[in-house]
Design goal:
By secondary structure, the protein is an alpha/beta fold. The chain is built from 20 helices and 22 strands.
Length: 525
């Protein structure tokens, strides 16, 4: 194959690729316009994070068979378009784990001991010890959001430095956390207790602007924030405001909403230290991910088993019309449940009823687990690795294939048991392609799995829905639909309200204050 390497990868992989019969061009100075012009010549494109592999690039690549990303994340690649075109996307999971974890600890140490500022002062020929008195790590409470491979490495290092580590990860079992000497807590509890917060989650629809003014309000005064994960998880404007007020005592930022960043107000703040996305930029990591990508590519070309495929299983099903709505149902079901979870999962049960559900059971299981766990996994989950990821987290997975359901020809039942509760959903496909929830715990409901909604558990008594509707109306929020189910009179009910716009935290709090409402969630599909 003819390969274009458009980012700065270790050039020593070129002889390896050529020895295996491939033609290689190395050009790291291409603009998107230039890349679109030359990409029709190539069968394969190797990138890191600098090249943006947009839909325009993919559609111009008429010969493209493989896109390889030297690194874990693939957020710079239009994965949906590549999958639609049948282009295999490879990445290198785990290749830079150690480097990213070490950089996180280095940023923490630098922030606590004011090392960059003191170094700059020395270069200005000053001897100023008083201005740069720091703090010790020992006994500080570190809150880690996301205990994937990198988060776990950070936890181990922090434990070795004498820190008390708490974490939020709804997919790590309590037993697995105990091995790491980590205490699992809710996200709100983490924000309340932590003196330092370190983020190790991906950027997606659910985590974008996760850390904003609402979160800072919950934190201790003077909390320190570390982000070596993905830009966009922190709302930078809100962070600047919190730094100015002193609510955030310091921040160490390696990644930004837009890169290269032009947010010099953030960079120039005296309590902020920054680096230009260096988490994986070590000699060892660069060598490892480049060679790992080259080796996996060669294995693929030779027809051997390979790891790091992001979308090969999806490609298998993308051109089967009847599989598309089935995969969509499983993915939306997982995404829906991920937004209901507030504590660690102990077990997952998946039951498939009907001929088609049984036939596509492996697809259903993989697609469901992928989107269920992606929210707080710093690794890119896909149809191949999602089951393995769940098992690594210590989650028990049970499955059953059943020939028939009394009411539906196609029916999927999922049940998740957490530390203190359980959630059971029944789902089906109405018509050709409308994914629906038709059962919520033991409550009969029906609603389509798309758009924005609020869900609450409430006492079954008159007036609650009217009060919630009135709150939404006063805020000019239009209701697109309502589904309400109860299992007996004057007991509990499940209420699902479809809405046209997102809700602010203040409005959610106002709804939660309505007498009779016990739990409240905001869902965005």
């Amino acid at each position: 194959m003819k390969i274009l390497i458009s980012d700065k990868l270790n050039s020593e992989i070129i002889p390896f690729l050529k020895d295996n019969g491939h033609e290689v061009d190395f050009n790291t100075s291409l603009s998107e316009k230039q890349l679109i012009k030359v990409i029709p010549e190539y069968d394969c494109l190797f990138v890191r994070s600098a090249t943006k592999v947009t839909s325009d690039v993919i559609n111009a690549g008429v010969k493209l068979k493989v896109i390889g990303r030297a690194g874990t994340g693939v957020d710079n690649i239009d994965l949906a378009e590549a999958t639609l075109k049948g282009i295999l996307v490879l990445n290198t999971p785990g290749g830079n784990t150690r480097s990213a974890a070490e950089h996180t600890i280095a940023m923490m140490l630098s922030l606590f001991r004011h090392i960059p500022q003191a170094n700059f002062s020395m270069k200005m020929k000053k001897w100023d010890r008083k201005s740069f008195a720091g703090e010790e790590f020992k006994n500080k409470i570190l809150g880690i959001v996301g205990l994937g491979k990198i988060g776990q490495e950070v936890a181990e290092m922090a434990d070795g430095l004498g820190m008390k580590v708490i974490a939020y990860d709804p997919f790590l079992t309590k037993e697995s956390a105990e091995i790491l000497n980590v205490s699992l807590v809710s996200m709100d509890k983490l924000f309340e207790l932590a003196e330092i917060i370190s983020l190790h989650i991906p950027l997606n629809d659910q985590t974008k602007n996760l850390i904003s003014s609402d979160v800072f309000d919950k934190c201790k005064h003077g909390v320190k924030i570390i982000n070596c994960a993905r830009g966009g998880i922190i709302n930078e404007a809100d962070l600047i405001s919190a730094l100015k007020s002193g609510k955030v005592g310091g921040a160490a930022i390696d990644v930004f909403e837009n890169e290269p960043t032009q947010n010099f107000e953030l960079i120039d703040h005296p309590n902020v230290i920054t680096t230009p996305h260096l988490g994986a930029s070590t000699k060892e990591a660069q060598e490892k991910v480049a060679f790992q990508l080259a080796e996996e590519f060669v294995k693929f070309c030779k027809g051997n088993d390979f790891i790091g495929s992001v979308n090969s299983a999806a490609i298998k099903f993308i051109n089967i019309p009847e599989a598309k709505p089935i995969m969509e149902l499983a993915e939306k079901l997982g995404k829906f449940l991920s937004q209901l979870l507030t504590e660690g999962i102990r077990s997952i049960t998946i039951k498939a009823y009907g001929t088609k559900a049984v036939e596509y059971f492996d697809l259903i299981k993989s697609a469901f687990l992928k989107t269920l766990m992606q929210k707080y996994s710093a690794e890119n989950l896909n149809l191949i690795n999602s089951i393995h990821f769940a098992e690594q987290k210590g989650i028990k997975i049970s499955a059953a294939k059943l020939k028939a359901h009394p009411n539906f020809s196609f029916f999927i039942e999922t049940e998740i048991i957490t530390s203190n509760a359980g959630i059971k959903l029944g789902s089906t496909i109405i018509g050709a392609s409308s994914p629906r929830i038709v059962g919520y715990d033991d409550y009969p409901v029906e609603f389509e799995l798309n758009g924005k909604m609020i869900i609450y558990h409430n006492i079954d008594e008159p007036g609650i829905l009217a009060k919630v509707s009135n709150i939404l109306s006063e805020s000019n929020i239009n209701i697109a639909g309502v589904s309400l189910g109860r299992n007996s009179k004057e007991s509990q009910a499940r209420t699902i309200i479809k809405i046209d716009e997102d809700l602010l935290i203040s409005l959610m709090n106002k709804i939660f204050d309505v007498d009779g409402i016990m739990n409240l969630w905001k869902i965005n599909l």
